[in-house]
Design goal:
29% strand, disordered C terminus
Length: 242
């Protein structure tokens, strides 16, 4: 298994461990009441909620197309209780009225944002994303307090200019273009890097630590006669240290 797959397996095992705990044990662990715990998924669009009523959701939280305007006291989000698909939903804010991430510190699935996430400009108090984070065409410009992303960090067409603060990430993905200027000086390990049209420059700021990248994929494309892109070269470099 690659780094992303290992992290997904580890995160799902941890969520299953939490689900096996009693309400009393969970309340003690998260300092909340039983009413503030959701053991499954929280689909806000099927409620009239304007504020999330939970502190802990062990499944995913979906705020898309809902009346939800605030995440309230939510601090912990698990992962959707279905198969290991590409997205492994955690916190879904696409097409929502959520203004910020509030008190959320840990998400064990993916953080889903897109161009329709109209208001979120930062990661707030968030420190950990267990699966992936898609920042394509979002307003976020830096990694804030996020230290680890277990899955894919997609900076394709994003406003992220630096990875400063981030220490570990399963994969960095950028195909069409990106705003990244440097890798910061905190990053210690990257599982894979995959990029296409615009090569990624491994530029470190200040006295950066040694950085280990497990593998790098560089796919080159050209537009064919029908207007579609086709791969003309696929290059892989193993174990890059910078």
């Amino acid at each position: 298994m690659n780094m992303v797959e290992k992290n997904r397996a580890k995160n799902r095992a941890y969520i299953e461990e939490l689900k096996s705990m009693t309400d009393e044990e969970l309340c003690k662990k998260f300092n909340c009441t039983p009413e503030q715990i959701c053991r499954g998924n929280y689909e806000a669009k099927y409620t009239n909620d304007e504020v999330c009523p939970y502190v802990v959701v062990l499944g995913f939280v979906n705020a898309a197309a809902s009346n939800l305007k605030s995440l309230g006291d939510l601090k912990f989000v698990g992962v959707g209780d279905f198969g290991d698909g590409l997205y492994n939903q955690g916190l879904v804010l696409s097409n929502s009225e959520i203004k910020d991430l509030g008190k959320v510190k840990r998400i064990y699935g993916s953080l889903m944002l897109d161009a329709k996430t109209k208001y979120v400009t930062s990661f707030g108090e968030l420190e950990y994303i267990g699966d992936s984070c898609y920042l394509n065409r979002t307003l976020i410009k830096d990694m804030g307090k996020v230290k680890e992303i277990g899955g894919i960090l997609s900076i394709d067409n994003s406003n992220i200019t630096s990875l400063e603060g981030l220490e570990k990430v399963g994969k960095i993905f950028a195909y069409e273009g990106y705003s990244l200027k440097d890798w910061g000086n905190t990053l210690k390990e990257v599982g894979d890097v995959e990029f296409g049209f615009q090569p990624i420059a491994y530029t470190k700021s200040g006295s950066a630590q040694s950085l280990r990248i497990h593998s790098v994929f560089h796919d080159k494309f050209k537009r064919n006669s029908s207007g579609k892109f086709e791969r003309i070269e696929a290059k892989k470099e193993e174990s890059l240290d910078i």
